[in-house]
Design a protein that fits this description.
The structure is a homotrimer of 674-residue chains. Chain A has 674 residues and is of the alpha/beta class. Chain A contains 17 helices and 33 strands. Chains A, B, C: It is an enzyme of class 3 (hydrolase).
């Protein structure tokens, strides 16, 4: 990993050019007062960098960099390729992205472009080289962000589709092979020549969709890698290159994308106010913002997973983030809580979006650190307190490795396919485009509710915890399934959830009894399954089955839980079997919050008891020191009994093991285990 | 009717070409073991029959036909015109169907074609002749299915629209006549010449819509008749020609279509599991699958109605049928129940869709007889039991004429018009595109709940029961209305529901007091009406009025029920009057389940009492033998007292009149009245 | 104002040309019997006036005008430009309106045209001149309606967009100015030349939207003014020119539009039956029909506001108005109630839409005075009673100035902007496109529920009541905000609601602490705010806060009400402060029905008590006589104690002050205070 400062970077995106009047010095002074150590600049204003085709105006940023540097504030310099100037759109309308073949996106927002188009690339390269050439040497610049939240569209432009066809041609060799592998005998889809391939607009074949989504994500990876390589021609030693990832974008594969970056950077937006309350039985919608403490922690764990190492938070809520109809600024204390939670899971930068609330444009109600008045308000004061805390905590909390009790295998290809072919229904019976999360999240949340900490991986090889949970791994090759069995045989406890091991990497249902290649070791198989529209009580563990039932037939396994139902009762809900040195447990349903928690308490019986509004997470500093984070997610104060001797990182107190520590409303304590 | 085997045909659609590995012999052996007598083949794979333009590959089906024949399994051979090969789409993109003028359907599914286009017809004729020429003589082939579930789209292609204009020109003669008949004075729509006619995309005039929908259905009829005639050039004596009808398709008129077929064939898909439970107070959505026993029975009665004779079930649920998010395989026993119900209403073939669950393609989760594992599972075992029952029942149950206590008049043109101009609202106040069924179904279901059996007709002339119920007959010519009055005068009990007799065949509101041409005989009229957003209690019969109230003014009739409401209470809900030798009853509202049941108990007072989970249906064999079917639609066993002396068709028991017969969970008994 | 008859005009739109058979004399006799004094004719049938390009047929209307005149029925003559003939659409398809750039509206309804297109204007002028030239001199004609409910579309045609760009060029001078004023630095939107401006289809920038909506409304105003000027070349002295306004149309600015008319004319459609019941706690959807007595009164007060003078009701419900699925004809008495309510608020014509219920076309179920039978039904009889009442009331009630206790400032530009950038969410969390009314209506309704009468203005200068309420005035220039403060300083009680004074006229958030330019005088400011998804109880006044909270910080004000909430409780809900001779009250939330009523009882403490189903409104005749209207909106009779000595305008009774007057179900009394 690129060398980063030995403390948590703390700051905001800063758009001096958006301020309605001159206030550079005032802004930077207020940042310094709040102990800011970093700002991000320049990524949104291509038309300011280059007001006309080939006419460059690069000087405007100089005072910002100088002013930041004078105050010891580092700078991440962004490239502006995500927002194309109107003159470029006018000159080459063919670069306009298409959401359906031949239907161009209307201009007026950003990311409307087919970023694979050579006419775009020509201009993008030119402006990137100019900016990097001009500012890479500035001493304030510690790194670069190329583009911004890429992968926002599934591009249907002709060039993209033709290259998709070429990619298939290279991958499969001839149409006979594609016809066979995709099952194109079905509904008369056999191609006679590559030119027969239909465009994606009307496609309803899953096999096509698997390839299409993979290809789309590969375009994003290629584009960002290309830009990162451009920057690397200019950067000084020690400067990093990254991009900020919005993990819900449809065309981004964080795993492959970050192979081309020096550090992962992500934008975890989350809902504030009551959405952060614990205990939490809500089943809140998750969109590009997460909702719930467990969901915020999941977004942190996904960022850690991209490179299995600490990461940067390039954007997160300053004020409330969302449309003009969705202003919900945090309660006092929640900013600190969220920031420390992110740090506890490996964040080594907390950079807010953004410094000042904008006075014009789409995001007029995406709240910044400063309100529209430009005068420090509640947000600034809360963040200044947090800045002081980061100052005090110093290197102890920078680049933490978060604790993990259990590991989850996450499959982007399965998620993509389930967006179009979901196994779960919405409450009104329609397809649930978030079905992958409908399978994955209840397990992750169950671990969270059971007081466990989780790691997320995309390959079985990366697992180093005694429990591995795999829900919804619909697309899997033989090798991956065999590695899962190997994990159990070698002593791990493998937990399989619904839909895992059902299809091959082409999205074809396997011809085995399910779970394929694992049924024998699991001692249970199924060849039928059912959706549930009402919840079904379960015996054996507390809670209820929801949404799905696999018809598990036990050949040689112990039944852990069973359905209380005249039809489904014939099948167990959960089975378990010793395998080699380990164990395979099969969960044939989507557990509700109670059953999920009970499942994880059964999986990892040892756990402390904390009040229901409290979470405790732990992590290890690069130098081996051990840190604990205790949060109280409630208006109601709480008291927690400590298990070890600890020192208060943010204060002077030292507590012996067994002591009690008091938390106020929406409070967080950072403790060094000594 | 074409000569069909003297037993219920039993089998499945069989796609050997879709199997992921060779297993023809194994498949056919398993079919034979389950007593299959028929398979349907070949209708989906034009691109296999003709991999390139003019290159034919016809041999692949031979082993399937031979293998079936060896085992005594008959074959229905399909023509593949519903699924166009990619090469044809590439060569002649102008054959692509358009859902709006100029907007082509995306390729990638099936039925994307303008089947009226000569470039399509040229190729369709060629492949149909090749397949029929090759296989008509095969001894296994007992019949042909041309195309598949036709009428899936309202085609807006230029040729279709121009022929629509020509059709109007031929029908009306000149624009002055059209202007007058369609009321085109309204909103300045008078045409000056035929070229003035607007395309259907923006049309909001009901008169246009009536003609447009009729024309669309006529295209489907013409296409299927054309193909059927092609096949007739090749078929052997005794072989039948049909197509499989999905009755909810927007452009199919089963009544006219089946005039060109040798036998009706339909695809009644239905919801399994709790959807089949009785008693049933749910108001489930009905889509292309029915939901509820009454709704399954309705779909059977509609198939019988197409030609007023027994029919084939070409497709029905093997495993669960629906999207990947909608897997609900039957409870044990439900397959038998549904099959015997269909047979009791006149089905002489039960052919499941489909033999094996597909491993690729859109329908990967449309469940077949075999699961993805290819090993017989619960479905196969349940169907094998049923196969044995059909074997035992033999000719007694093949080609039954179902009993009918009451008759319903069904109007496709009224249904079509109400899809765009519905008289009923959805719960949120919007237009209910299923309003025709919103009017029709509560009456049909009331008869079902009252223990009655129904026949459906499209012309008053076809009625031969003492009660005729006519809800929602919005479009009707004078002659039809006069025939209805004539039915009553001749001794029948005519029951009119809301909207009947309101408009003429052009969809123009009549200028009479309503119900037009019937008000005087009914002794009641109305000139106003109201939608209801809340239900209104009714006095006189149990139950409530829903959705609609006609302001019935009694001139000379007896009030049967009245609204309990400060405004609507001025009008009766139901009136009745002797007319000639019969009677006319007017129902001014949509009855809820209680009121509908009470209405039919009042209409047909004599009825036996059975437990609330039990239905009893009856039918007559071609040779005059009388059969009874007793179903228990519940997990709870039931006991039924028999009214006649019967023999158990599926066992050896004989029961005297008055004996009790026990039914298990989801059980069915077939009894021969002796 | 144009000279109008000294009595309330009473009648209907009359489409003799739509009748299915000849019945002119019968229709006119029935109108005369119901005391009709006016009909509107001719506005929908351009293709009848001009069956082919340049061939005119103008005589058909003569018998209608003659027949009306013979019976003393006046005529408003409409121009038919809202419904373009098919031949014109065929000749010049480029006149078709576009809802998105390049996407033409489908023909088949009406108002499909780009009315700014010269090819349309050429033909529109020709037909208007022909009709006006032919009939302006007819003695029956008292006025003209040009076009009909204009402003139905936001037109995206090329010419419209290019003139929009020209308009910006003229308004801002150069792109540098536009870049600065619109903040186009944001997201690289800076223009290099006018040709860079993007079309509105993909726009997400509020500043663009402000200009676009203003420009669209200006097109409508220009078109109507152009037609009105054409008519003025032909009209006789005393004949008025107007158009009928549907106030919810997206491109109509009634304030500016009516500057070019002689009298305001509007089409207040409303929901009948239970929607008119009081007391009313429903939060009914408001669409192009209002729902609730308060909402009907609001639509009347908006019509009065357009020119701050009495107005014509050109269309309102005869029978039920709406789609075929939404028939809800009034309860007995409701027609009278609604008509007298409109008159009490300044209506000097009540013209129903329409005489006879149409037998064909889209509006077959928009109910007329006569039902489809053509025989007088309940509606005719109810209206005949009302006609007699208007006859009796005579000049007393024609051209009333309605009483006003409080004034509301209404901002169309704020409403338009909030349709795309709403500050309020729907219950499911999405943007509420009716957010402006979400802010405005609860205050208006609070005044209504408190028994107060309201006036609506668009400029502070028009206020002449002691209380001025300003919710949701998001877009405001400095001068307007200063005038508001001036109103308070001069002795008025200014009540500010959420979002008022937040942005400048370009839609840019102001840089002040809020409410901008008013916070100091109000003694309270805020720099943050929150949406509410659940209601929050309030202390100090009865009721609850909903949807929005401003974080009010008191500098020098009295707290009237406070939130009962652990977070929001830090801020007051309502503050008040003496300012000069008056007072400023700030309401930081959207009050629920209880809080809104309590607020207005606090604002205007003196009020009489009437039963909860009763309203009392008052008005002054042009000659100074005072009238009271007492309505009982319920099936339950009510008794009201009179405060003054009154004479029953519709009867012979005279009541002393303190007497009680009895109202039947859905009754209304008109009283002359003597």
């Amino acid at each position: 990993m690129t060398e980063l400062p030995r403390r948590v970077l703390f700051g905001a995106a800063y758009y001096h050019e958006y301020q309605p009047y001159e206030r550079l010095e005032e802004d930077l002074d207020l940042m310094a007062e709040a102990r800011f150590t970093v700002i991000r600049v320049g990524e949104s204003v291509w038309s300011t960098w280059e007001p006309e085709n080939g006419q460059f105006a690069l000087d405007w940023l100089q005072p910002v960099l100088d002013g930041a540097h004078e105050r010891g504030i580092a700078v991440i310099l962004g490239t502006p390729t995500y927002a194309v100037p109107p003159w470029l759109a006018r000159l080459y309308p063919e670069i306009t992205g298409e959401r359906r073949t031949g239907e161009r996106i209307g201009w007026g927002a950003r990311q409307e472009v087919d970023f694979t188009h050579p006419a775009f690339r020509f201009h993008a390269e030119r402006i990137v080289r100019r900016i990097a050439g001009r500012y890479a040497a500035h001493p304030a610049v510690i790194g670069f962000q190329v583009d911004n939240e890429p992968g926002n569209e599934l591009l249907h432009n002709r060039g993209v589709f033709q290259r998709f066809t070429d990619d298939l041609r290279h991958r499969y060799g001839d149409v006979a092979t594609l016809n066979r592998e995709w099952g194109l005998v079905y509904w008369s889809h056999r191609l006679s020549t590559w030119a027969d391939l239909w465009t994606p607009d009307g496609n309803v074949q899953p096999q096509y969709d698997v390839a299409w989504r993979r290809f789309q994500a590969a375009q994003t990876t290629e584009f960002i890698a290309w830009q990162a390589d451009l920057i690397r021609e200019y950067r000084r030693p020690g400067q990093f290159v990254t991009t900020c990832i919005a993990y819900e974008r449809p065309a981004v594969d964080d795993d492959r994308l970050t192979d081309h970056l020096d550090v992962t950077a992500g934008n975890p937006y989350y809902r504030m106010q009551d959405a952060l309350e614990l205990p939490d039985r809500r089943s809140a919608d998750q969109h590009w913002t997460s909702s719930g403490v467990w969901a915020l922690q999941l977004s942190a764990d996904r960022m850690y997973a991209s490179r299995q190492e600490p990461f940067l938070v390039t954007e997160t809520n300053a004020g409330s983030i969302g449309g003009p109809w969705d202003n919900r600024p945090a309660y006092d204390g929640q900013w600190r809580q969220a920031a420390w939670l992110l740090v506890s899971r490996g964040a080594r930068m907390i950079e807010y979006w953004h410094w000042h609330t904008l006075h014009f444009g789409t995001e007029t109600y995406w709240g910044g650190v400063l309100p529209h008045s430009g005068k420090p308000g509640r947000t600034w004061h809360e963040l200044a307190r947090l800045g002081a805390e980061f100052d005090r905590a110093g290197d102890l909390v920078a680049g933490l490795t978060p604790d993990a009790d259990v590991t989850f295998l996450f499959s982007l290809p399965s998620k993509w396919l389930m967006q179009k072919y979901p196994p779960l229904a919405t409450p009104d019976g329609g397809p649930d485009a978030r079905a992958y999360h409908g399978l994955f999240d209840p397990f992750y949340r169950g671990a969270f509710d059971a007081g466990l900490q989780s790691r997320i991986v995309s390959r079985p090889a990366d697992v180093d915890t005694p429990v591995l949970v795999v829900p919804g791994l619909y697309l899997a090759d033989d090798d991956t399934l065999d590695q899962l069995r190997g994990y159990a045989e070698a002593g791990g406890h493998l937990v399989l959830g619904p839909r895992t091991g059902y299809a091959d990497p082409e999205g074809r249902a396997r011809t085995d009894r399910m779970p394929a290649r694992l049924a024998e070791a699991a001692g249970a198989w199924y060849d039928e399954f059912s959706n549930l529209s009402t919840e079904v009580p379960v015996d054996g563990l507390d809670g209820r089955a929801t949404r799905w039932v696999d018809g598990l037939t036990v050949t040689d396994a112990t039944v852990v839980a069973r359905y209380d139902h005249p039809h489904f009762g014939r099948w167990p809900a959960i089975t378990t079997r010793r395998v080699g040195a380990g164990r395979i447990t099969v969960v044939g349903t989507v557990p509700d919050v109670d059953l999920a928690k009970a499942l994880f308490r059964w999986l990892v019986p040892q756990h402390g008891e904390v009040p229901p509004s409290v979470t405790v997470t732990g992590a290890t500093a690069p130098d081996g020191r051990v840190v604990r984070f205790v949060h109280n997610w409630s208006f109601t104060p709480a008291v927690v009994r400590l298990e070890s001797h600890v020192a208060d990182v943010l204060g002077d107190d030292v507590y012996p093991a067994g002591a009690e520590i008091a938390l106020g409303p929406w409070d967080v304590r950072v403790l060094n285990v000594t």
